[in-house]
Design a protein that fits this description.
about 350 residues; alpha/beta; single chain; Arc Repressor Mutant, subunit A
Length: about 350
Amino acid sequence: MPRAVDLTALSLLPLSWRRDVAEALRRGADPHDLLDTFVTERPHIPIDASSLRNRAAASLARAEQRGLTPITLGDTHYPAMLSEIFDPPAVLWLRGQVSVLDAVAVAIVGSRAGSPYALAVAERLAADLATRGIVIVSGLARGVDSAAHRGALSANGSTIGVLGSGADIIYPAEHKALAAEMIERGALLSELAPGTRPLQPFFPLRNRIISGLSRAVVVVEAGEKSGSLITARSALEQGRDVLAVPGNVLGGRNRGGHALLRDGAKIVETADDILEELGFGPRLAFPSSNGVAEGGDLVLGCLTPGEPCDVDEIAGRSGLTIARLLPRLIDLELQGRVRRAGGGRFMRV
């Protein structure tokens, strides 16, 4: 509990400090010492470490009351792909099924004022991917986001909504029924402490989590200034695939999406286009794109049963980039051939 309190307290620091916090935690800094150091070294913003810890303890208590699960950086359940981005959240607050974080995920995002065409495409793509076992990630916003969530649920699949508020605050309020269904078969997720109201700065911030959880980001109808383009930029920075659905050239509804296509994003017409880009076959078999035999002998050969190994070390042994190694490790974990050992480490079963 003390570690959870300190990590939660760190998450309550000003937004402008979060990258520095994440960088220090990735270097292995102790959360308790780090909080004291930040408060001491930055006196221009008067913050009391003791008060922050009290607020953090209150957030953890509220989470327990509201049925939220705090997942701190380094926990076994912390998503491995998200932990490798430049600025992973110190704490994730989850409401729903923790197991959904272990599945292969694809983000579907787009305009809040999506056209009927865009909403239909988002729903269809999400449903088709969900039938293949893919978890759909989006932002629970109006328009394309909610259509994607509904599409996954219509196929009895799972979906994750990443919020710009606390995970116990549903925004927009009209999506409370949708959110309740998502909690049953997926999850609501936020880096913001329980009880945090939705504010404009939080929405661009959460987009890096949407892309960080996902193997690919699919943009369905985005204008020139759409928030979906922020998610696409985050995806590119994180080494994720970016794909886009072509749309009507009249009216400017999809100028942002077409700009992505001109810059090299893959055209998406069906779910098969997405799966092909990820290298998945009809049954979601992981490709042998790294030049090894089906079954992943290269990665498994870098691991020893019962001996945990961190991702950087496995990458060094295998010669694979982190972006290509993490999906392979997750796939092997789903097959029961690799197990997480905590702290971003894996071991062979």
